[in-house]
Amino acid sequence: MKSQPPSKIDAVRHSLAHLLAMAVLKKFPDAKLGIGPTIENGFYYDFLLGQNKKSKELRVKSKDKSEEKLTEEILPEIEKEMRRLISETLVFSGEKVTPQKARALFKSQPFKLDLIKEFVAAKKPLSVYHTTHEMRESKRKPTTHYPLPTTHSFTDLCKGGHIRNTAEINPEAFKLTHVAGAYWRGDEKNPMLTRIYGVAFDTKDELDRYLLQQEEARKRDHRVLGERLKIFTFAPEVGPGLPLWLPNGTALRDALEQYAKDVERRWGYRRVATPHIAKEDLYRMSGHIPYYAESMYPPMALDDGNYYLKAMNCPHTHMIYRAEPRSWRDLPLRLAEYGTVYRYERSGTLAGLLRVRGFTQNDAHIYCREDQVEEEFMSVMRLHEFWYKDVFGITDFYMRLSLPAKDKKKYADVPAGWKKAADLIRRAMEKSGLPYVEAEGEAAFYGPKIDFQIKSAIGREETCSTNQLDFLASERFGLVYKDKDGKDKPVYVIHRAPLGAHERFIAFLIEHYAGAFPVWLAPVQAVILPIGEAHRAYATSVYDALFSAGLRIELRAADETLGKRIRTAETEKIPYILIVGDKEIEGRTVSVRERGKGDLGAMPLAAFQEIIAQSAPPRPKPPA
RNA sequence: GCCAGGGUAGCUCAAUGGCAGAGCAAUGGUUUUGUAAACCAUAGGUUGGAGGUUCGAGCCCUCUCCCUGGCUCCA
Fold this sequence. Notes:
Strand content: 15-25%
Structural class: alpha+beta
Number of helices: 19
Radius of gyration: 30 Å
Largest sheet: 8 strands, mixed
Number of strands: 28
Shape: globular
């Protein structure tokens, strides 16, 4: 991931951010400016307009007493002003400045002063960029104070990367899209600014294509398809973030789970099952209290102490490891559980099935000796590869080695352990040859991990699968094995969930397949449509044969026209439609229509079953 | 949790502060159908909830619940 040299469109986007600031300052002269960088497809700029109650010293009072507020309704107005500025052919010019001069220029801009302080402390050079009329610029230097009074001049603290003048901007090829709150410097202790997002391209065509794509993506959104295909629902009475799985969704879940259990059986896992609650003692032992208490549902106070809903499966499974003495010969021990956990996620973070408060993980814990860690870790990576590549054909993801942040308070304080664990993972990854990026501040509190990052239809990034190395569990839970020399040795624990949680993974699969699931996952695999009432008996015999062969099928009687029933089945994205009438009865066949492909013609039932058999997922191969 | 926007029939959406509507779905009937929408009829609502302003509130105000877009968070 090396950084590309800035392209022209980046310079356009960056310059548009400056014009956005100019336009906002015209409407809100007292606005305080944050930063305005380019992002994928566009740019944004952060402003404080004075509506924030937390930051009295930064509050801006508007003259007419009405509260200053920036909503999406104002965006067209600001956009119009930006276009006007573009038409004036304003020029961008850079200038290196001393800290003193920078402080003077931005004396009424607290956030800019903040940045200047930071730059000076880091001994970075300071520069500013002016946006002015060329003629005006030749007469005088427009740097006397800030913000400059005319609508044609603007100076921003900026490291550069601009176009020469606004004639290079296509005024038809950008659009302000939405506003959002964003904490200054990304820290929730800081005041919240108003962020305006925009997109920009070289041509109007590209912009239109992008906007159309966004619209198409929304149609693939798992929340839209999940409702239309009757996969899941929510009920306010049950609670936010607590999905209810409808029959179609449950069929899908079960199909996935059944296959996953078979894969893991062949991969050397043994299944366990544990209760949904546990006493506080367990979570004190694990360290989840205090590290994780905020994200757990509050305790149930009972006679013998507090009980918690489990937010993770590991502590329970560790108790199973501890249930008997373990020998070096027993390892690696791979214990798998489809475990349902509850996490009290902050309300604003919930999103359909992608982020929920109750979910079921495709979880397992591998207990192994230090000399087995690398091989086991690699084996898990191969298992991930099997799922992503062989089973689902997912290519749009990246692997992230998640390490602790420099600020250590969220992570267990065992520097040597962290280094050793990170080195073990790095070595395994290098050996596997799989590409990955490293990211600080993303680790679990008990160890580093490899996360599989995917993007949802609307572009939100989530961790889909995880493979973690835990060097703390041994000490915390007293997890040891008797080695050859008769001494107790600590075990390493690998936490892994290649399918993450059903909820998130199925959300992703809905979007990946746009609801058109492969036959082995489809909630309903085929419908049988008798053309008329007279064909019902034959249709029923076809149904019985396929039902006993284990297919998920439905028979839909002739109370609607055939065209209507075909249309309905197609919109439900059912893989196969079997049509039976006089012709089929005579030839003892079924006419097969494949989803999206149309009529395949009449064939014997056995031929259809052969088609179904060929669409089975790959047979899992056990590791070498 | 924070900032902003939204919530009208099962779904998609209408309705200047003045009688709450359409299409699809549902239900009942007619039709018995040959590869993406037959026809007729019926029913469906405390406009998310509570309070307020008003002669009168889906519409204006306050609170609250839920959803959406971001931010923060994310074992």
